[in-house]
Amino acid sequence: LRNKAEMSSRLAAVGEMAAGIAHEINNPLTGVIGFSELLLEREDLPDDIKANLKIINDGSQRAKEIIKRMLTFARQTTPQMSRVNITELINHTLELRNYVLATANIKIVKDYDATLPWVVADPGQLQQVFLNLIVNAEYAMKKAHDKGILTIKTEKLDGYVRISVKDDGPGMPEGIRKKLFQPFFTTKEPGEGTGLGLSLSLGIIQEHTGTIRAESEEGKGTTFIIELPIASDTDKIAEITPEAEPPRSV
Ligand code: ADP
């Protein structure tokens, strides 16, 4: 299990690497663009210098465009849709973190709806989202009190399923809650977080025509809530891989 946990962390790290590099380049580039623009506004500069500044500005704008595209690419491989048993997917994801959760004294509570229906989704992408939420919860609880309770709840509602990932970590003030899903927003030390986990997760959930939001209370903890539509229309059924097995109950 230790190897599995390491593997999952490494996979996540590789997935975020391109984006991380993009971020590193983006910072100095923003300076180059900003200052070349400032200089271009000056009226006391000779034309030849202005022409050179224009080249600097155009070049850096182009580099910025390339980075933007790279980020979009890092996040979007075409989803491979199939029927997904959410319960199994969550259990599998938890297994990857079992070792780390146990050594951090984090208890896992599974509050599953045994009648949860299939959703049509890309299982790899959904797993990435659950992994992000679990790793974030783990980090928050570890930091707050070196132990904790991670509660994962699934519910069948009218036309959709709801998955809640709840921790009893430190929670967060509104100022942070508002910025959570912004790319590169992080409160972690440099090298510990890229601030991309939640923005990538949001992108994935939106591609699945679902929603993701966070409820948080300072000193009490945080709950991330994902809602995904249940496949019912024939369009979606057509996307299903034929070899999919029927869902098993918990
Ligand atoms: P990263 O984990 O690299 O910082 P994320 O996008 O996954 O990037 O998260 C952004 C920020 O949201 C974190 O730095 C943290 O401040 C906050 N956050 C995310 N999940 C939690 C949580 N469960 N409890 C408290 N804060 C959280």
UniProtKB/TrEMBL annotation:
Compartment(s): Cell membrane
Tree of life domain: Bacteria
Record-annotated Histidine kinase domain positions: 20-232
Protein name: histidine kinase
Originating organism: Dehalococcoides mccartyi (strain CBDB1)
